[in-house]
Specification:
Layout (H helix, E strand, L loop, with lengths): L6 E5 L8 H15 L8 H10 L2 E6 L4 E10 L4 E9 L8 H16 L4 E6 L2 H10 L2 E3 L8 H5 L7 H6 L8 E5 L7 H28 L4 H10 L3 H12 L1
Parallel strand pairs: 4-5
Antiparallel strand pairs: 1-2, 2-3, 3-4, 5-7, 6-7
Helix pairs in contact: 1-2, 3-4, 4-7, 8-9
The chain binds coenzyme A.
The site of coenzyme A has 18 residues, from β4, α3 and α4.
Length: 242
């Protein structure tokens, strides 16, 4: 019988700096594989987070790097983002991201008591993990308005979309955990389970409607098909044929 893989998840420190490059490489190649955008991070930035004790790193029992996430603060510490969540492909779908997120969530609250925790994501897995922690979907206006945070999006392939929407919307879904007024974790998680199909569809439709303004007509059907919205593609084709 296959043995369940065990991980150690710890607060990163200076001794982990050699892993910064592999972490950055994995972030980039995972984003490419998903065809989504990310705010790019340099190995030096990741090293700094490690030295400051503002990151969480996971290893297998054999010392193989397995996952990572770090803390960023905005609006003078009023807002905290747990960013750059990444799990090495061979260790995915075993609950590791969930455990890393829980650890960095606790660390964030310890380092910045009272701060609002938020995140931007295109991934359903991250939405699920965040909901389990008590995060709720919000509009972009409820996030930090710190220029430095939004400047981080400049390296994302979708930056043009964000700016064309005056920073009010983009491909990512915004989620927030406000320690002063948040639903009990169980309730937020239950809401997500009940609405997950709706969220998935909403994300696809939102991403499609943001994209279509930027695309030439001939690319539109292909994108619709990729998003699984084939009925909409057929409808559009029929409409164009008339
Ligand atoms: C997203 C990512 C971190 C998830 O890591 P993971 O260790 O596989 O996640 P977990 O096993 O902890 O899964 C957490 C939950 O999400 C669900 N999930 C995992 N991958 C999923 C996917 N691709 N689609 C939908 N749900 C998914 C799991 O079923 C689990 O739900 P459960 O609690 O009901 O069982 C990992 O796939 C990754 O590193 N991807 C590339 C980088 C990335 O997308 N980072 C997020 C940037 S915002």
């Amino acid at each position: 019988m296959e043995q369940e893989q065990k991980f150690t998840i710890q607060i990163a420190n200076a001794s982990h700096q050699d892993f910064a490059q592999i972490i950055c490489d994995e972030m980039e190649s995972s984003a490419k594989a998903r065809g989504t955008g990310i705010a790019k991070r340099s190995p030096d930035y990741i090293k700094e987070k490690m030295r400051e004790g503002k990151a969480v790193i996971a290893f297998t029992e054999d010392g193989i790097w397995a996952g990572f996430c770090y803390i960023e603060t905005w609006s003078h510490g009023e807002y905290v983002a747990n960013s750059g969540l990444i799990v090495a492909p061979s260790f995915r779908k075993s609950g590791l991201a969930k455990n890393i997120k829980r650890k960095i969530f606790d660390l964030s609250q310890k380092l910045y008591p009272g701060a609002k925790l938020f995140g931007l994501t295109t991934g359903l897995a991250v939405m699920k993990i965040n909901s389990d922690l008590g995060y709720e979907p919000v509009t972009y206006s409820e996030l930090t308005q710190d220029e430095a945070f939004w400047a981080g999006c400049k390296s994302c392939v979708n930056y043009e979309i964000l700016m064309s929407k005056e920073r009010k919307n983009c491909m990512c879904t915004a989620m927030l955990y406000d320690p002063k007024e948040h639903k009990p974790k169980e309730e937020a998680a239950k809401d997500f389970v009940q609405r997950s199909k709706l969220y998935e569809r909403f994300m696809k439709i939102k991403q499609w409607s943001l994209l279509k303004n930027l695309l030439r007509k001939e690319k539109v059907d292909m994108i619709l098909a990729e998003l699984g919205l084939t009925k909409l593609a057929k409808f559009k084709k029929e409409k164009l044929a008339k």
